[in-house]
Each structure stands twice: as structure tokens, then as C-alpha cells.
Amino acid sequence: MSLCRNGPNVGASIALALLLLLTALFASPALAQAEVEREAAAAVGAVTPDTWRQVRSGEVGPNFRDTRADSTYNLINASGESWRQLRNRWVSPFGLIAVGGMAGVILLFYLIIGRKDLSEPRTGRKLLRWPLVVRSIHWTVASLFIVLALTGLNLLYGKFVFRSLFGDAFWASMISGSKLLHNYLGPLFGILLVVLLVRVLKHNWLDRTDLAWFKQGGGLVGKGHPDAGFANGGEKLWFWLLATAGLLVVASGLVMDFPNYGQSRDTMQWANIIHAVGALGLTAVALGHIYIGTIGSEGSLEGMTTGYVDETWAKEHHNLWYEEVKDQAVPEDQLTGDKTVPGDSSETASRPG
Q: Is residue 351's pLDDT more than 50?
């Protein structure tokens, strides 16, 4: 009888004990964190806005320095924030305007003007324009350029598109693969680009005919097609862009690819900006080069795929070169019938044409 009377009191006591136990369990981490914060406050002291300003300017002692070996940078690096602002507020919008704007202009040009067809029928006689060795290097460099351009655009803009579409897991794999390809293929692209530039340098020295070519907009202004040798003014301009801005992009990429040669953090930041601006600009111009060399102009792609161009194409686009090599034209059926193509060698490429 007494057990029944005392039952509620026993249950209440057990419930109270459990409540106290749970309170102790949850309170322990909070008390431990509070203890850590008290120790940190005692060891470091109050961190005021003035303290952070001192850290930013580098006026405080070594306790506020970066822990990297031989580093002279502050814990808070002002140049890093400047780089971030420059990249996000200027470089990224510049890239969208340059690449997207060029793509839009090319699309409008194609829809309004259309492909530039040959004004006269083809003769069926072919002239060697590019030997096999040059074509092989060109297509290798072009393929690497496209891969580097796509992976670079992904590194800069991909997170705004693919991350939201496919989620973090897919995005992480995608960005990791892009970075790996970009870092390893970049040096190979640089080496082959130099080889290609040296190989075709002799055709790309500027002369007086190029001024007339630019005045006529490559044939878009006025009547008739402007005079041109082996390379016209537009092709020479693309060559020198690659020889200047292109090599600068390669050099800045190597600075970031191999950070173990004493580069400072500021050097790496400037290399990143130079690399991004140059690469985005070249990508925009490359869209025009690709358009003109493929669907924009009849017969242009044949020269870099088969090595040969029709006489009509040569006369219309490179008349001065045609006059130099017209006696070397061969019938098309002769080329398709023989596996050994006459003249398709480095020897022929060394001629003026």
C-alpha cells in the first residue's frame, strides 16, 4: 500500500534526475566553448577595428604575420581583395562582352550577308597552299586552343551555369577535370604555337598591300577584292596577335602553372589578370578566324584540310600569290588518282607561295 502511495514521488524523482543529466550533457559543450573563448580572450585580448587596420597595413608585430616560410605578407592582404574586385567587376564582364558580342556579330553577319561565294566557277585545277607538316601542326594547335578556351571559360563562368543545373558533385568533377586539362595542355600548346609561328613567319611580314587591304575591309568596302600575296592583311593581323598577345598568354600561364620558382603572390595575381584578359580577347578574335576559314568563305577550308585550293579561289583572295605559282597548278583528278601528291612536301612550302 505504501509503495503505491510513494509511486508518483519515485517517478517524479526519476524524471527529475533524467532532466538534470540531459541538461549536464548539453551544457558541457557550451561550457567548454565558453572556456575556450575566455582563454582566447586572455591570450589575444580584444580585437578592435584599429587592430584589424594595423594588421591590414602591416604595422603590427610578427604574431599577426602569415606563417608561410620566408613570407613578407600580412595576415590580411589588400592586394588579394584588389585582384578579386578587378577579376569579378572588370575581367569577367569583359569576357562576356568580347566573346558573346563577337558571336552575336558573326551570327548577324551570316544571316544578313551570308557566305562569300566565289564569283566565278572553279577551274578544277589545284594549287598547293599548305604542306602536310604545316596542316598537322595547325590542326593540333587549333584543337588545343579550343580545349583550352572551353576549359578556361568553364573555370571562369561554369559555376554560374553547370553548378546550378547539375549540383555540387557533378560540378566538382567537372571543374577538377577542366583545371587538370587546362594546366597540362597549356604548356604543350605554347610549344607547338611557337613552332607554328616560326614555320609561317616568312609569309606574314607586313607590306604596303596590306594597307590597301585594310582600307577596303578585306573586300567588304568598294568593288573588287584587294590585292594580297600568300597571306592577306587579316591573316597577318591574326598571326601577329598570336605572336604577341598569344605568347603573353602562354607566358602568364606558365607563371601560374609553375609557382615554385619564387613568384610572389602579387606576381601570380597579375599573371592571372593578364592571362584572363589576353585569353578572352584571343578567343573572341578566334571566333572570327574560325568563321572566315570555314562557313564564311567558299573554298577556304579546303586549303587547310587537303592542302590545295582551286585556281579561282587563289585568284580572288590571293591574286599576287597566284601570279607567282599559277604554273604549278595540277588537275584535280590527278590529285585524287595518285596517293603520292606531287609537291606536297616541305620543299614546296619553302617557295614564295
A: no
Q: Are 284 and 107 in contact (CB under 8 A)?
A: no
**d(Cα 200, Cα 289) in Å, to the nearest integer?**
16
Bridge partners of 310? 126
Q: To 5 degrees, how large is the angle CA 175–CA 176–CA 179?
A: 85
126 strand-pairing partners: 310, 330
From CA 275, how far away is CA 246, in angstroms rounded? Answer: 9
Measured torsion, CA atoms of residues 122, 123, 127, 132, in degrees rounded to the nearest 10: 50
Residue type at 97 in one-letter notation: I
What angle do the packed helices 132-157 and 168-200 form, to 10 degrees? 150
Q: What is the C-alpha separation between 4 and 82, in angstroms, rounded?
A: 77
3-class secondary structure, 306: coil
- Distance, in Å, from the CA atom of 151 to the CA atom of 183, rounded to the nearest integer, reads 10
Q: How far is CA 159 from CA 154, 244, 271, 276, 277, in A?
A: 7, 31, 22, 17, 19
Q: What are the residues facing 116 on neighbouring strands?
A: 297
User: Does position 75 have pLDDT exceeding 90, yes or no?
Assistant: no
Please report the beta strands in 202-342, taking only residues with DSSP state E, as ranges in sequence order: 308-310, 330-331
Prediction pTM value:
0.76
Q: How far apart, in whole angstroms, are the C-alpha atoms of residue 320 and residue 304?
A: 20
Q: Which residues of 18-55 are buried (b: 16+ CB within 10 A; e: fewer)?
A: eeeeeeeeeeeeeeeeeeeeeeeeeeeeeeeeeeeebb
Name the pLDDT band for 266 (thresholds 50, 70, 90).
confident
Is the pLDDT confidence value at 1 over 80?
no
- The β-bridge relationship of strands 330-331 and 125-128 is antiparallel
294's grid cell: 570555314
Average pLDDT, the chain: 83
3-class secondary-structure state, position 341 = coil
330: which 3 cell numbers?
595540277
